[in-house]
Orotate phosphoribosyltransferase
Amino acid sequence: MLNEELIIDLYRVGAIKFGRFKLTSGIESPFYIDLRLAITYPGIYKRLVKLMAESLSAFNIDVVTGIETASIPWASMIAYELNKGIVYVRKEVKEHGTAKLIEGDLKTGMRVAVIDDVITTGNSIIRAIRIVRDHGGDVVVAAVFIDREQGGLNAIRREGINAFALFSVIDMIDVLVNNGLVSNELRNSVIEYLVKNRVSTGA
């Protein structure tokens, strides 16, 4: 199965890691998803971009929006694949030039897909959605490659936005278990962690 091969390839290049990792929230996690590594490998990069572009093709979007910085390479290639434009949301207003929060030509009423690589709480995507809306964009979908299954997609849906992920972390681990790459014990420890650390709100 193609997607199983893709998950295994992500694991083998180190984009899916197991151990002890401190997240930006300060919480310690037994796994880490690093899709910044994947863009170094054209075969993986292309397959992920194609999968996402195919998933977004039903939404009749005008522009793809990335979030500074990790999702910009993904949003750029997805937009290219779909023959759409790209804009991106900055982390903060730059102190020079035009002092924009959104780079690119976002026009009022444009149908927008907001893209990110991995979702945990959904906070960064929700912030981007609100900024795009404030600038006149019509966000019709938010999409990520991997859902850490800690409540982020539901938080986005509470904003009235369609939201989906190509892969969930448990589905990915199941593929790795079934192929003898990680143990059932590790899978169970990840599930235990997710149950204890699921967020209740993304706002």
